[in-house]
Specification:
The protein is 25% helix and 34% strand. With 131 residues, it is of the alpha+beta class. The protein has a single domain (3-122), classed as Cytidine Deaminase, domain 2 (3-Layer(aba) Sandwich), CATH 3.40.140.10. The strands form 2 sheets. The protein has a 5-stranded mixed beta sheet with strand order 2-1-5-6-7. The protein has a two-stranded antiparallel ribbon with strand order 3-4. A hairpin with a 4-residue loop joins β6 (94-104) and β7 (109-113). The radius of gyration is 15 Å and the shape is globular. It starts with a helix and ends in a 14-residue tail after the last helix.
Length: 131
């Protein structure tokens, strides 16, 4: 099963009672496992949590910490970009050359390197002077 298949299969499970905007994400870890996530909205935070964050949480809970590929899909007119928070989360676990594919449910796809999605990423290197 491809990352695309995983993301498309999990997307309908998103919990989006306020927006109706369901997003599915799948990431491939360095260990060769695929992890899936969906967006989850709630009344206190109607924007909810993002699908990418869910997939990353599942990966970390399984003891893995490195993404080697990711796929994100939603039913929208053009491929859905991750929000700023998810770009930062992805960058924590994906190197600058990791391919992130953004897609629509009707088959449009755009691929980016992580460094293209979040140029100038904040890293631990920026905190080296902290004592």
């Amino acid at each position: 099963m491809t990352l695309k298949d995983v993301a498309l299969k999990i997307r309908p499970m998103a919990y989006a009672p306020y927006s109706g905007f369901k997003v599915g994400a799948a990431i491939l870890s360095k260990g060769g496992k695929a992890f899936a996530g969906v967006n989850v909205e709630n009344v206190a935070y109607p924007e909810g949590t993002c699908a990418e964050a869910g997939a990353i949480a599942a990966m970390v809970a399984a003891g893995e910490t490195e993404i080697i590929e990711a796929y994100v899909v939603a039913d929208c007119p053009s491929p859905v970009p991750p929000c700023g928070g998810c770009r930062q989360k992805l960058s924590e676990f994906a190197g600058p050359d990791v391919v992130i594919t953004l897609a629509t449910t009707d088959g449009q796809e755009q691929t980016y390197k992580m460094s293209d999605l979040l140029p100038g990423v904040f890293t631990l290197r920026h905190m080296e002077n902290v004592k």
